[in-house]
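for the recovery benchmark. tokens below, seq after
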């Protein structure tokens, strides 16, 4: 399977405990095998098995275990089994659940794939609040990218109100151009002006809020080396950093079909889309987890791309539950990008818009390996709907 250039061109958390308590202060607690930055925090998390407590810090390929003996000792074989299991979990390429981190980002604010009515102010406010509620509850620090020319019927005050809902939810807002035109089909000079137009609008709407991230529409970062390098210099000169994506997916296609189904009152199709969405997204996550090990040599903080649409407003709680079940801790984009993986050479220049993991693998000369496709029935329905509207 080849790379899917967007044409936009478990290990379950184990638990252990005792049926009877030998000591009054024994409590059943979950196994917590994860990477910790400091020993003090680690020592507050224990694996209780009979009378031994284990706390492990994973730093690179090294393991530190603190062991506190109480009144009851384990057999030698049981101790060896426990330690061997913990060592296996710490081996490169087999990260523990709680080691995983993800930064969640949203594109196409104020709204996408939600039809003409999506920009109607009262509906937009309700959809935005519903979309953000589960992320606020889980204290997810989002980064969200605004198309400032989107929903042009909104007044500046209405635009400001909607963006304030995002910022009040803890989201950092970024630049996604004014028109959302791709760099493949637009002269670089016009593209730069599109970025600056969005920059001016955002600063008027957000006041003194710092705007430091830019994301290329359709993830198109330059069809040639010359244009790619020029864009990078332009962004740096204006204080922007290109926001990469590692967990790329087709949520936008699911959302488009879902919105059309809801608009037509086709509950069967809407249900079919909802039922397929989370399994598809999990297949994408699982693929890029493995691909990270193949390309980078380890798992690292991933960056997930979602779109601000009706489907994600409906499915947000289930999406977050799936990520948590796979052991993810939610971090900000800024935190994720501190990982040295994001400093890897990216020599890709071309018309494809796809995951940075693919760009790194291509730079290394590795064979292409594409992520799972969206369901065939969904792609056919999307194409049918698009052709009917043209």
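predicted aa per position
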């Amino acid at each position: 399977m080849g790379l899917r250039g967007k044409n936009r061109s478990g290990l379950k958390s184990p638990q252990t405990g005792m049926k009877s308590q030998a000591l009054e202060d024994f409590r059943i607690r979950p196994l917590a095998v994860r990477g910790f930055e400091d020993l003090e925090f680690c020592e507050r998390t224990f694996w209780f098995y009979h009378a031994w407590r284990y706390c492990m810090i994973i730093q690179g390929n090294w393991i530190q275990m603190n062991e506190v003996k109480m009144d009851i000792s384990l057999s030698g074989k049981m101790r060896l089994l426990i330690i061997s299991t913990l060592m296996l979990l710490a081996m490169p390429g087999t990260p523990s659940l709680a080691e995983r981190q993800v930064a969640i980002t949203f594109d196409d604010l104020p709204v996408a794939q939600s039809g003409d009515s999506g920009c109607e102010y009262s509906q937009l406010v309700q959809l935005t609040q519903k979309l953000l509620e589960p992320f606020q509850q889980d204290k997810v620090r989002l980064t969200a990218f605004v198309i400032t020319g989107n929903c042009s019927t909104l007044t500046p005050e209405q635009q400001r109100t909607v963006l304030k809902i995002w910022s009040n939810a803890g989201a950092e807002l970024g630049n996604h151009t004014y028109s959302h035109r791709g760099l493949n089909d637009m002269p670089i000079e016009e593209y730069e002006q599109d970025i600056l137009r969005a920059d001016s609008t955002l600063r008027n709407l957000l006041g003194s809020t710092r705007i430091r991230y830019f994301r290329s529409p359709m993830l198109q970062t330059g069809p040639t080396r010359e244009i790619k390098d020029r864009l990078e210099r332009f962004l740096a000169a204006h204080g922007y950093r290109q926001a990469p994506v590692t967990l790329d997916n087709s949520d936008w296609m699911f959302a488009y079909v879902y919105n059309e189904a809801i608009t037509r009152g086709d509950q069967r199709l809407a249900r079919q889309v909802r039922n397929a969405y989370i399994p598809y997204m999990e297949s994408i996550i699982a693929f890029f987890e493995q691909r990270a090990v193949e390309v980078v040599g380890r798992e690292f903080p991933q960056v997930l791309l979602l779109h601000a649409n009706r489907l994600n407003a409906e499915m947000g709680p289930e999406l977050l539950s799936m990520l948590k079940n796979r052991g993810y801790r939610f971090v900000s984009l800024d935190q994720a990008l501190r990982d040295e993986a994001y400093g890897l050479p990216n020599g890709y220049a071309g018309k494809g818009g796809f995951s940075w993991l693919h760009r790194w693998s291509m730079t290394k000369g590795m064979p292409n390996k594409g992520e799972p496709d969206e369901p065939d029935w969904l792609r056919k329905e999307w194409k049918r709907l698009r052709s009917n509207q043209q």
